[in-house]
Amino acid sequence: MKITYPKLTFSLIALLTITTFGAFQNTPDKISISESESDETYEITASYGLEKIQQVHNFLNESFAPTAVFNSVNDYFEKTFTFENKMRLYIKTNPGKLLLILNKQENSEESLEWMKNLYTGLEETLLQR
Fold first, then answer.
1. For 4, 10, 53, 97, which has the most beta carbons within 10 A of its beta carbon?
2. Largest Cα–Cα distance in the chain?
3. How far apart are CA 28 and CA 122, in angstroms?
């Protein structure tokens, strides 16, 4: 069987397109959460399947109460919040993605400890089935 270059090229392009599309889809099995700390900031980064959005939003709203950060599952933004306890927190959300950044110079040691506990709770929320 002889394969011509146009057929081979088409097959390779089709394979690359399918592979690339599959790699960037937000699937239920792809959950990632991490924390990092520097002298200036403490950061939490998470990515998760679209089916987890409601759980994540509910957990964060309960954690940040009485401030309601999310009003719906379609609520996505990039904003710095100041909470009742004077904690300032940068939050960026996209479908299935979350970034929280606490500036350590602008916040207390208690706020930093609270954020580390928030990380643990968020991790448990994401790993629940």
1. 53
2. 73
3. 16
Query: Which residues, listed in sequence order, are joined to residue 94 by a DSSP beta bridge?
Result: 97
Strands 97-103 and 32-37: unpaired
Length of the chain as a residue count = 129
The helix, strand and coil proportions of the chain, stated in percent and rounded to the nearest 5, come to 40, 25, 35
Tens of pLDDT along the chain (129 residues) come to: 555 655 545 554 544 444 444 444 444 568 999 999 999 999 999 999 999 999 999 999 999 999 989 998 888 999 999 999 999 999 999 999 999 999 999 999 999 999 999 999 999 999 997
Q: What does the alpha-carbon distance between residue 122 and residue 52 come to, in Å, rounded to a whole number?
A: 11
C-alpha torsion sign, points 102, 103, 107, 108: positive
Strands across the sheet with 78-82, in order? 32-37, 41-47, 97-103, 88-94, 78-82
For tokens 């790699």, the residue is 23
Indicate the burial class of 35 (C-beta count within 10 angstroms; 0-12, 13-18, 19 or more): middle
